[in-house]
């Protein structure tokens, strides 16, 4: 998915930084997979970081210069600008769909960063912290998504991740995000239903992404989606399915340990949101069949 050259990137809710001396979490493929299963795309890192092996070391991670992010052309060139521009687009869509919508903060980091949910390292992957209403992204993760998890490298694969994290912000605003920690867990538990709803919300964004216009410029944020774009998003959704991650990490699948849903479920709920554009169709908590 390509951003329109005429759109202007708003960096007012975005900060960039990270690094310095401090904690790192785990290491290698095993540590990454453990954290991805528990945290990828939305869980509270504070619940998991304290359970992981801790190492200390040096990080050198100066912040990305956000003044590079000015136009849609910059979003098409720099992955960091693409994250910010996608956030702008998602904000615009939800501002029209949800009465009282307020924008979350966005933090680009590398190495490690302090959050309202605890200290997080790059191994955590993208996540949303409800305590400070901030979505955190180490954009190096998008390379991991391709090389370790087999996702497509297309831009909508990356934009899906951003839209999913913003889906958790929508859940937070609606007062349902806390349900992820309550009730039964496992393949039909509240945690999985929370994540699948965020996937559906990402699909809702994709439904409107190319027709929602930026108020300041009057141009759509993005050009129309192609079939390849949708395949990119579905590829990303499948690559972070619990069953696929478990199979790659341990050689077996244990549904009772699922936290985000199977690959097919994640693809299904993204598709529901994309095809309908209706957030009310994303009520995974009421669904008898999760797909």
Task: Based on the model shown, name its key terms.
291 residues, 8 strands, 4-stranded mixed β-sheet, 42% helix, 10 helices, alpha/beta, two-stranded antiparallel sheet
How does this model look, in words?
A 4-stranded mixed beta sheet has the order 1-4-8-7, covered by helices on one side. The chain is of the alpha/beta class. It contains 10 helices and 8 strands. Helices cover 42% and strands 12% of the residues.
Mean pLDDT: 84
Structural class: alpha/beta
Biggest beta-sheet profile: 4 strands, mixed
Low-confidence stretches: 19-61
**Strand share of the residues?**
5-15%
Distance between the termini: 26 Å
| SSE series | EEHHEHHEEEEEHHHHHH
What percent of the residues sit in helical stretches (DSSP H or I)?
40-55%
Write the layout of secondary structure elements.
Blueprint: E1 14-17, E2 20-25, H1 28-39, H2 46-49, E3 54-59, H3 72-77, H4 79-97, E4 105-109, E5 112-115, E6 118-121, E7 127-129, E8 134-137, H5 141-147, H6 155-174, H7 190-208, H8 227-239, H9 242-250, H10 263-276
Parallel strand pairs: 1-4, 4-8
Antiparallel strand pairs: 2-3, 5-6, 7-8
Helix pairs in contact: 1-9, 4-6, 6-7, 6-8, 7-10, 8-10
Condensed summary:
42% of the residues lie in helices and 12% in strands. The chain contains ten helices and eight strands. The strands form three sheets. A four-stranded mixed sheet has the order 1-4-8-7, with helices on one face.
């Amino acid at each position: 998915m390509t951003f329109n050259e005429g759109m202007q990137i708003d960096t007012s809710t975005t900060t960039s930084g990270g690094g310095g001396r401090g904690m790192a979490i785990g290491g290698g493929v095993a540590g990454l997979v453990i954290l991805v299963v528990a945290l990828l795309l939305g869980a509270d890192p504070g619940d998991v970081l304290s359970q992981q092996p801790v190492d200390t070391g040096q990080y050198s991670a100066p912040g990305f210069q956000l003044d590079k992010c000015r136009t849609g052309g910059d979003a098409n060139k720099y992955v960091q600008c693409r994250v910010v521009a996608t956030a702008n687009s998602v904000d615009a869509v939800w501002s029209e769909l949800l009465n009282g919508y307020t924008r979350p903060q966005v933090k680009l980091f590398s190495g490690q960063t302090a959050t309202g949910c605890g200290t997080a390292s790059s191994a955590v992957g993208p996540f949303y912290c409800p305590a400070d209403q901030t979505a955190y992204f180490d954009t190096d993760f998008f390379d991991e998504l391709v090389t370790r998890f087999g996702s497509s490298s297309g831009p909508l694969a990356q934009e899906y991740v951003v839209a999913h994290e913003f889906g958790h912000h929508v859940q937070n605003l609606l007062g349902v995000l806390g349900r992820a920690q309550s009730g039964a867990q496992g393949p039909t538990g509240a945690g999985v239903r929370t994540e699948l709803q965020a996937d559906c919300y990402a699909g809702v964004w994709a439904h409107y992404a190319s027709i929602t216009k930026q108020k300041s410029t009057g141009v759509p944020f993005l050009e129309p989606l192609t079939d390849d774009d949708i395949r990119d998003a579905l590829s990303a959704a499948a690559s972070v399915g619990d069953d696929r991650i478990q199979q790659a990490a341990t050689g077996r699948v244990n549904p009772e340990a699922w936290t985000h849903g199977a690959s097919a479920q994640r693809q299904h709920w993204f598709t529901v949101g994309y095809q309908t554009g209706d957030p009310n169709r994303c009520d995974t908590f009421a669904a008898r069949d999760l797909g």
